[in-house]
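Lab meeting minutes (informal)
Scribe: AK
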Amino acid sequence: MFHSKYKNTMKKYIFILLTSFSLASCVDLLQEPQSKLTPATIELTEQTLESMTNGLYKDLWGENFGFNCRLASLALAGDDMTSGALDKVRNVLDDQLKVPIDNADVLNLWKYFYQTIYSANNIIYLINENENLDTQISNKYLGEAYFFRALSYFYIVRYWGDAPAITDPNSSTDIDGSSNMPRKPVKDIYERIILPDLSNAINLLPLQSRDNNNQAPTTWAAKTLLSDVYITMAGWPLKEENYYAEAAKTAKDIIENGPYDLVGEYKDLWMNTKKTDKTEHIFALQHSLSYLPSQYGISYLGKEENGWYDYVGDPVFFKNFPNDKRKEFCYITSTVDTKGNRIDWEDFDIGAPFIRKYRNYGGWGTYGIDGNTSTRSSLSEGLTPIYRFADVLLIYAEASNKAEGSPNTLAYKCLNRVRDRAFGDQSHQYAGLTPEKFADAVFDEFGWENVFEFKRWFQLVRTEKVDEAIGKNAAIGARLNANKENYLFPIPVRQCELRGWKNNPGY
């Protein structure tokens, strides 16, 4: 596993240099770093390259209450989950699409992504400037750096829109050589960083991950990310619909030539013992209690279970969810309270079902150590899924229908493969739909398939269905500040003050 290698192989002086570089660059984002790494100051062995590349995972994760916790908090802006703790102000703010400029989740995600970018920039520079490296060894690490930089920028443009675009390892200039670091248009970041980086990653990464699981990205993971990038570029805000064809083409390549398939049972994807499985998981972050621990734990337990109930299922989305195996697995609709009374979800304190999806991840996050409820905490094991094969099937179905003007045979096959597993039979397949109805079916299926995986918000935004989806919940819709200026989150106020940037509209 990455974490053991990271601990055992990182040389002390390398760690100090990398740490000082990342933190100096990210505290106020664009400050000149205190230490600069060059081929002259660091010996690039395979061991060193592996250690530096493994550090990207720590960068992306951040610190306590890291990456997946922050994604979950911002995902409250979507329609699939909400917060049970109504006294926690973030729930109301996110549901209303009006997040304060000093929001901690926004600030920390911004920091995680740019810290990862700075580290990736440095790895890319060091490898490309060193003529003595064995390319067969260095390429896979170079490919991972390109992948993580592209992934980080992809999150950035979807959350914040225009943003500083930095590939300079010294973080002193942007892609146009400007030291003022203006926010660059979304289109520029896609075309000048994300797409070229993914092209490089596809060419450099191996077909099989270096640890033979689903965490280290592969060529296929890079292609999956690329298909998502293409279908996003086809939607809001760029709306360059020619990219639907590119998304379909890329997804079709993965479907026909990649090593992936749907696992037989949806619930098996969320078993701690099978979290490293690479049958369906294409790219995921692995967690243990000692390395990148997740925050799935007590945050997902209801009030009636003495939990924090930070995240619960949205009741309107739940009611619209078909009664398939996914719904049965993903939700808890009744529980026994501390007095031994059975309570159905309508009578829960929050009036919403609890989330079951991450409760097979053991450790402290489920029910405490050895069943001792007093040891419950926010920490849990498991994985944070970024891409699954089901995503690829649904991307192809949506993109090909849009590109060709009607669903083809493969599009139906892809959609129905997801549908068949959900119901456990072939009696609920789609057939004979108009292009519009087919698009609606894919949209719904994506929401149900990926419920609580922090992807719904991005889907709602690129398809411009935020108002429609969230407005179905009368309690939220009545106070919804839903217009496209609120599709973007606020730039951290400190960054705007330092660089003289204008924040996103509405902030």
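Next up, CB showed the second protein from the same session:
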Amino acid sequence: MAEQNNQQKKGGQQQDANQLIQVRYDKLHELQANGKNPFEITKYDVTHHSTDIKDNFESLEGQEVTVAGRMMFKRVMGKASFCNVQDLPGNIQVYVARDSIGEESYADFKKYDVGDIVGIEGEVFKTKTGEISVHASQVTLLSKSLQILPEKFHGLTNTELRYRQRYVDLIVNPEVKDVFVKRSKIISAIREYLDGHAFLEVETPVLHNQAGGAAARPFITHHNTLDIDMYLRIALELHLKRLIVGGFDRVYEIGRTFRNEGMDTRHNPEFTMLEAYQAFTDFNGMMDLTEDMIRTVAHKVLGTGKVERDGVEIDLDKPFTRISMVEAVQKYAGVDFTQVETLEQARALAKEHHIEYEERHKKGDILNLFFETYCEDKLVQPTFLTGHPVDISPLSKRCKDNPEYTERFELFICGGEYVNAFSELNDPIDQRGRFEAQAALKAAGDEEACDVDEDFLTALEYGLPPTGGMGMGVDRLVMLLTGASSIRDVLLFPTMKPLDKNSTIYSV
């Protein structure tokens, strides 16, 4: 019965909405019939934004300005009315009087709807209540809104609807617009930092002949002309290291990456990755660069190195903690892997601690499972995790003093990974062996394992200098610096399953 009542309520809402939308269409047809079609207007010269006027009121008071934006509020009071016009940086109140704009224009204005795009010419002044406003001398309807914005005080709160109709979300939720302005500034600050450290920004292919550079399941497409299957890139790594071979000492790319994997608050099939590679340095050099870059970007965008996540203050100004995976597992799980010599011993420990593993997992894989189970969520403040087993690091150099482990680090903040980096493996013989091990895993059913990349091996044979490289999830950094709880909140158009043709989205 409750479900029936709910359906009836939705049906009634849709009927009411359709009636209101029809009224807007009727208004448009009337305008068109009277030679006032707003869609025929091609340009409107704007002299100021809302924030310009508010920030510079003393110099602009009494001056003529032209603003444009979406009308978000309107109150008609006989011969005079007020409305609020929203533009990119903010909003401003507009006083519209019949005697100032003329009787015919005022009659038209009274028919305008919330959501319409308007242009305002007028004089800057301050009302008796002290609100900085524009006294309109001319109001121009620039575009007619034929849909209805969500109710003013409740806004657009349905999470799924917000993601599906981001354009409405941006209109009615100013804090959302602020997130994406910050996102743009974060990416600009990253570019500024790397450019200032002599890195060259490059672009590499999105379509690959084979997937590589990460452990991930790719999206597969087909090139009709070449009649071959191709892969959307899962990482930027292998092409960027080819450029280091070619003589570019420092390169980076900020680009879209695609992984055909699960979706949650930290994962979207399409995301933005930063990868940077520097010749003649190692993972320690990349560790220093990563820490300094994140700290610099935070101060550039936020003006502080302290951010709050889930009620915890994250301090990016303090030196980042450094701990090895073996040390972390010993600290948080009480298991000393320095004493584990065989795969059988590792499996026995896993069973003892109720950690599930697969037959293909080696000793290093099981160590990593211990870390993920017992340690990962403990790394709240910025922490560099080092000493990854070679079994899970197919592109990283081995440690000289312990070849079972690699010169690699991951940056963890709030229990989540933000950066993966290492001293790049430049031994083509060792690299071939690791590729072949990955290919064997793939043949055994591991969809995330990679194939042998013969061209990359050829590049290594020409000579890759000692190189440090890092990859960072840009979306996750944006989440950290904006306080967003889901990756979908920092993607303008997150991946969504199409609605069933019988489904209806209610935006009223």
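CB comment: The chain has two domains: 12-143, 174-320+381-490.
No objections, moving on.
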